[in-house]
Amino acid sequence: MALAALLLLLSITTATFGKYIHRYHRKSFSNSVKSLVTANKLLREKIDFDVSSSDDSTFVILAFGQSNSANSSNFLYESHNTIINYYKGNTFIAKEPLLGMKGGLGGSVWTIFADKLIDNRMCRNVVVIPIGISGTNINCWSSGRCNTDLVETLGLLRQKNIKATHIFWHQGEADNSRISKGNYKDRLVSIINTVREFGQDAPFYCSIASYAPKRSALTGLGIDANIQQAQIETINEMPNVLAGPNTDKLIYAIDRFDGQHFSEIGLDRYSDLLMQSVIDGAEEIQQD
Q1: What distance in Å separates the CA atoms of residue 37 and residue 13, rounded to the nearest whole number?
Q2: What would the pLDDT profile of 89-120 be if each residue is shown by its tens digit?
Q3: How many helices and strands (H and E) does the chain possess?
Q4: What average pLDDT does the segment 47-61 reach?
Q5: Residue 185: strand, helix, or coil
Q6: Chain CA centroid to CA 69, Å
Q7: Among 18, 93, 221, 276, which residue is least crowded by beta carbons within 10 Å?
Q8: How far is CA 87 from CA 84, 93, 128, in A?
């Protein structure tokens, strides 16, 4: 009965807002419904796809960080290609909100990005392994509960002999004006080293991300130069760490529906920046 009631409530919410769904508080409605969806794999279509034996025509994307790497948009993008969502040993046809992320019922950038990769003939298949968690700071990912989730995922991938082809990190907003450049950099290096220790040696794309409009009085325009510099130095100094999208450039109202999280237009622009990062990264790797 409880399950039926929650599903009815979800259907009413979806019918009311169409493709736009409010991002409910992650400690109440969001967690209740999302946990049911993920635990019971409701409304999800399984697909047989052996990720471990995929060839060069398949991109396997491991994506993590805080809300803008997760399901925080008010727009639920619908893919026109078959995108694969890998979740705890199973493969599903990707449908927003993707399985694996925590903190909301909204959309993410990963399905629109995957469509663009396929449409531009950069690959034939895309597998997305999204484990972003909303509202998390870098300390959570270097040594806290987020790190526990990361290690669990990396361990499962190693057990299943699955290697990512691209790794995307998007985080920094929660640390805006709250951490020094050195401390942020040390924690980011630790996170990257953890990923490498589990045999994931794909290019690690580090986003330039620090924008937090509520911190504007402290940082000016809501952008933290210390976090940006820590991210840039990590890109320049660590092997196989490449420049990801600079989403601190996407700070206009048209890009962020609530000032912080991406709108439909924002997701489109964000995905274009991801595309350019992959193109530039491939050229950089080729030159090396």
Answers
A1: 15
A2: 999 999 999 999 998 889 999 999 999 999 99
A3: 9, 7
A4: 96
A5: helix
A6: 3
A7: 18
A8: 10, 11, 9
Residue 211, phi then psi, degrees to nearest 5: -65, 120
Measure Cα distances from 182 to 41, 206, 226 in Å: 41, 16, 8
Q: Which region holds residue 46: left if phi is over 0, alpha if psi is between -120 and 50, else beta?
A: beta
Residues in the chain: 288
Judge whether residue 194 has pLDDT over 60.
yes
Q: What is the pLDDT of residue 286?
A: 87
Give the CATH number of domain 45-287: 3.40.50.1110
Q: Output phi, psi for 208, to 5 deg.
A: -95, 105
Could you tell me the CA-to-CA distances from 78 to 21, 98, 236 in Å, in that order?
14, 11, 36
Quick one: which of 213, 169, 14 has its CA closest to 96? 14
Buried b (16+ CB within 10 A) or exposed e, 45-69: eeeebebeebeeebbbbbbbbbbbb
Distance CA 4, CA 19 (A): 22
Q: How far is Cα 182 from Cα 143, in angstroms, rounded to an integer?
A: 16
Instruction: Kindly report, residue by residue over 159-173, the tens digit of the pLDDT.
Output: 999 999 999 999 999
Contact 160, 52 (CB under 8 A): yes
Q: Beta strand pairing status for 125-130 and 84-87?
A: parallel
Alpha carbon separation from 264 to 10, 11, 20, 42, 139 (Å, rounded): 21, 22, 9, 25, 30
pLDDT beyond 80 at 69: yes
Strands 90-93, 84-87: pairing is: antiparallel
